[in-house]
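Q: I'm writing up a methods section and want to include an example of the input and output format. Could you take the sequence below and give the corresponding predicted structure tokens, formatted cleanly so I can copy it straight into the document?
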Amino acid sequence: MGPSQQASLLRVLEDKKYLPIGETSERQCRARFVFATNTDLRRRVAGQLREDLYYRINVATLTMPPLRSGAAIFGARAVLQSQAERQMAAGRSKSPRK
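A: Here is the clean output for your methods example:
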């Protein structure tokens, strides 16, 4: 994602407003976002990802095993449960930041 796209996304996340293409007035955004990637975003902060955007989207991390490992047969519920248990054990809150 390019720098201008990152800036636009950060603006939507922080201000909850966006400007549709071809319009002159902003609109309110009432949405929740889920971000998924197959790369380590912490390593991308060095030059490809804005640090402020990284900290805004890095609320909860869920690591899923690759499908080829065979661990995917346990299903998403088991993975989500184990991740929740790990976060609670680490002293993190289950409720998202506001």
